[in-house]
Amino acid sequence: MNQKQIKALETQLWDSANSLRANSKLTAAEYKDPLLGLILLRYAQNRFEQAKARIEANLPPVAPGRTRKEPTKDQFLSEGAMLIPPQARYDHLAALPEDESISQAVNTAMTLIEAEYPNLNGVLPKNYHELGEKGQSETLLRELIRVFNQDAVKGLTGDVFGRIYEFFLMKFSMDGAGAQEGGEFFTPPALVQLIVNLIQPDHGVIHDPACGSGGMFVQTGHFLEENRGVKSVNAAIKCYGTELKSNNVRLAKMNLAIHGLEGKIAENNSFYADPHNLVGQCDFVMANPPFNVKKVDKDRPYVKNDPRLFGKVEIESADEETDKKKKPVPRLGIPNADNANYLWIQYFYHYLNAKGRAGFVMASSATDAGNSEKLIRQALIETQAVDCIVSVGNNFFYTRSLPCHVWFLDKGKRAENKQRILMIDARNTFRVVTNTINDYSPGQLVNFSAMMEAYRGKADAIREAAAQHEANIADVATTLLAEAEGLRRACLAVLKEESPLGESLEWDIAELQAEIIVDEALTLASSRTLCGVFEQPVAVLSGLLEGYQAQWEQARKAFAALEKSAQNTDDNKALKKQLDAQGKQLKALSVLIKGYFEKNSEELASLKQAVKDWQALEDYFPDGVYRDVEGLCKIVDLAEVAANDYSLTPGRYVGYSVDVNEAFDYQKRITEIHAELSNLNQQANSLMSFIQGIDL
């Protein structure tokens, strides 16, 4: 199943499941967990069937008169699947008679699975009898089971179900089902991918102390499989997560199970506990913690002695005129401000081992926060572990429109970078998804990764990114050219139909046929050529048809007038026949072209974006090597950071560019605008005087 088919199936399943909810009285929050539980159950069944087939294929032949033993639980585990008890299997539930309670049967199925697999104990939903009012839960549940029992779903293999689970999580988050302030319930995939791509978590201990639904771990698994070719993700990494909210803990454990990932998720409060004891032990830390959390109890003994915070220090009083004494602060790491942003930042730093990397989302206010937070930031900068800061614009979170920054730490920076930080201002880099949601395109993520790799010393990082753009563009463009070839053949079949041309319609079939022929050499051309001409056969044909359509309509109107003023001669009858035939032909061609654009709209948009991203990379770095780009990126010395009051806001360093037309007389235009404004004000005053003088 290709990506387009997966996306279509995701949308179809969501639309079906969501329409069922819309016809019930359930809120999205009430509906979310039971529905995600059914997805897990369906996925477990699929993996069970596939593993069983592999196990049985490798068993030795059975002697005559003897029966084959059933595969064991350990055999299924070795195949990355669960041994599903018969009463918990999806096909058993789908075939349940109407007179038996389906909600009770699903609750039982979940209980049986938890009994077999203690790591899922208390995780799976078992409240299916509450899916609506009396009787409604049975109907709704049976319909949902049918939705996920389609043949297309039964045959899914690989990590397609993981994709579907993530898609449903994202959709629920967009609907506000359980979403928290700052988007903590579900981190937008674009930001997760940015973090994973830039820190490259390919080994060891991975930790997220605010793990939500576990998206950081899942994306790490994708990265290992797709970018590192790792066959066994669980052998390469160990996942540890901490999450405060019980519901999110269950979602995270289900998410790991769906993706076949092993991990320990603790339900705890990271402000007051370190349940995994990972200080100094982590190879990678990733997180999207809740922003600006207030009322953390900083007087608790654990907080005061927390090894995840910096040490004691004395700072000057804020009011030096009235208090010349030094004001003691219990620990540098306990900020005076009533928000927990700088607690989180210190946690992430101190979890890292000597070569560890961290990537985390943080409120924009943190990069310039003053007073005690500034001192903590200064101490962090002076450790030389701050590696990169990325400014992110509005509309990346599903439930709130707020900008943020993504911080990257690296305790194992190469010597050349110890005194440097890469600043990236990405506020003007994004892809519009809807009116309220933005994200990063795959090509934009490639560009960010290339900047980071070049900064880390990889000499050919920019050229490799350009080659990656070319390869991706060539793949999509070649697919579209194949689709255009199919369109060409269909259009030629229509044009070959017998249809004499009337003198009133200027239509040159030879010209039309020439325009829609796809040059076979294009499939062998460079990807740059493909980028420039992939649309040409279809776009030119569309333009010709629009012109011919207008001509035909004009001729048809002229003929209608002729019918009224002249007799119904044989010539007129012949002309009408010609026009009708051409109209039919035009309609057939228009349907074909419209179908092409509808079928390939996403690919066309994707290719345009890919070409744009590739061109941006070449514009930024025309020589194929990293350079500072005004308004986008700059490698900053720590001395410059200190001179800027230890600010970590990229916009303060990368600058901005303004296009100025030196040939344009701005002063003259300003004078003209002032004159126009004065004239408008006079007219407004005159009109007001006139209105006031009217006797109502």
UniProtKB/TrEMBL annotation:
Catalytic activity: a 2'-deoxyadenosine in DNA + S-adenosyl-L-methionine = an N(6)-methyl-2'-deoxyadenosine in DNA + S-adenosyl-L-homocysteine + H(+)
BP GO terms, sorted: DNA restriction-modification system; methylation
Record-level Gene Ontology MF annotations: DNA binding; N-methyltransferase activity; site-specific DNA-methyltransferase (adenine-specific) activity
N6 adenine-specific DNA methyltransferase N-terminal domain boundaries: 9-148
EC number: 2.1.1.72
Family matches, as InterPro entries: D12N6_MeTrfase_N, DNA_methylase_A-5, SAM-dependent_MTases_sf, T1MK-like_N_sf, Type-I_RE_MTase_Subunit
One Pfam match: N6_Mtase
Residues in DNA methylase adenine-specific domain copies: 158-459
Keyword Protease applies: no
Assigned keywords, A-Z: Methyltransferase, Restriction system, S-adenosyl-L-methionine, Transferase
Gene3D superfamilies per UniProt: 1.20.1260.30, Vaccinia Virus protein VP39
Source organism superkingdom: Bacteria
Family: Belongs to the N(4)/N(6)-methyltransferase family.
The protein, known as: site-specific DNA-methyltransferase (adenine-specific)
